[in-house]
Amino acid sequence: MKHLLLAAAAASLTLPATAQEPAPIPSPGEITAAAPASDWIAIAAADLLVMDLAPDAKGKARRVVIQLMPAPFSLGWIGNIRKLAAAQWWDGTSINRVQDNYVVQWGDATEKKALPEGLVTVPESAYLSERKRGATTWLPSANGSYAPHHGVLAGWPVAWNADAVWPVHCYGMVGVGRNFSPDTGSGAELYTVIGHAPRHLDQNIALVGRVVSGIEHLSSLPRGTGALGFYEDEKERVPITSVRIATELDVSDQPRFEYLSTESDSFARYADARANRRDPFFIKPAGGADICNIPVPVRSVEK
Amino acid sequence: MKHLLLAAAAASLTLPATAQEPAPIPSPGEITAAAPASDWIAIAAADLLVMDLAPDAKGKARRVVIQLMPAPFSLGWIGNIRKLAAAQWWDGTSINRVQDNYVVQWGDATEKKALPEGLVTVPESAYLSERKRGATTWLPSANGSYAPHHGVLAGWPVAWNADAVWPVHCYGMVGVGRNFSPDTGSGAELYTVIGHAPRHLDQNIALVGRVVSGIEHLSSLPRGTGALGFYEDEKERVPITSVRIATELDVSDQPRFEYLSTESDSFARYADARANRRDPFFIKPAGGADICNIPVPVRSVEK
């Protein structure tokens, strides 16, 4: 009884595959685990934003690692984020908002901390990028509600139409808080998605990256009881001790991650398996999946 | 800066509407708040399953209220759940599994507790119900990945094809853990969705209700570090002190809720607003929404 519900990944390992009995069809996780090393792409340390929170109540360290998006996406905001990290601007700020089934948001709760010099103001047009035809990998994904097409581009979930491509708000994606239009946010106020993909935010707000490790340190925080899930008592805020680009850390302290090439055969089989679960637990494959149910596999690399 | 990101609901209340300036277009929350009392339907106490957890570390009570689905859905499992609650079977069991962006699961971690007499074994065919044409309310929702049609039926998110209709796995929906097919689960082992809608579970596992209050007591629990998010140390499990149908509680202790009639004009306007955000924060309406981004409004009724 213990392994009820989506037990296939664990249980199938224990199912004997005898001559009489064909091996079970692999789960998405098993396909990923079996992918050759050549299908994995290292994430540059320069693209990892490392956020350390104050230790939890039991004294346990809490590190959240965010992968910043590659060009052509959100370059202006990501440039600002690099400047903010270099200025150690987030050190001493806090997690200020936790809204259930929506977002966790962090930044300067006092709203008084001066921003570093040289941040740029990014126009709303930068929420989208020019589409280069053929550059995207189609996925067995519809979500026609939100865009004509969905897929992945160089490892990132995107939507596109005839002219433009834009990143989408899946679980764990990191975006830039802003005020009312035409404000687009500087990048100093960030959030990550901790619930069902709020796709209505696509093209309305900048996405700059995704949490690749430690999202449980954000998603399991107590929900804020104020409007929009803001913490009402400042003692509820979670202190941010340090935010650095990984290259600014001691080499021994630099996290290392790689993602499964979304151009690889392994990813194609993984995506098909996500859309058509045939591993032992399932009795009826869905026949498709929405883009946010085909998360790009990312794994930690042991030093 | 404090109200960055989806600030409209809160901020628009503070935006002066002068003669020169038209009132802002209402947000989905404002439409719901303005709905007449006649658009709200009381949820029968007999359909509310009340789960009390042990108080949290600060001694704060933790109550989770689940609305059971109406006929024709999942009748066999729901009948079993009523028997289990009447037998006080869950008292002394625990929350045993918390898997990030997936589910929280509870039941008898010892796997040894005898089930009450009279539980029925439900066939897999009961994952679907016969479709009564015209009974569903269409929503501006696609998710073509998962079904030809999506909408709501008597207040519940469903998908349907020419022959059948079935409930869908949105955030907060409650389902029945099971083992490998042909097992369909008794209803003693339950889970709720705490992440992006795992729609691949639709038609593969029984849905029996939804959390209408207190999901934060489940979604903010520490994630389990074992396989599938199970807690590895039994001390991590969260004790369940009591699970009752609300009618079994003292009247003074019975929670009362109502939901917005999904046949009402208010709901139609709410659903349209969810699919086409035009309130002040938004610059580009999505033009649609997936079924799980149009949650049916449920509110507590003060005694």
UniProtKB/TrEMBL annotation, chains A, B:
The keyword Ribosomal protein does not apply. GO terms for molecular function: peptidyl-prolyl cis-trans isomerase activity. Pfam families: Pro_isomerase. Keywords: Isomerase, Signal. Residues 1-19 form the signal peptide. It comes from the Bacteria. Residues 79-243 form the PPIase cyclophilin-type domain. The keyword Signal applies. This is Peptidylprolyl isomerase. It comes from Sphingopyxis bauzanensis.
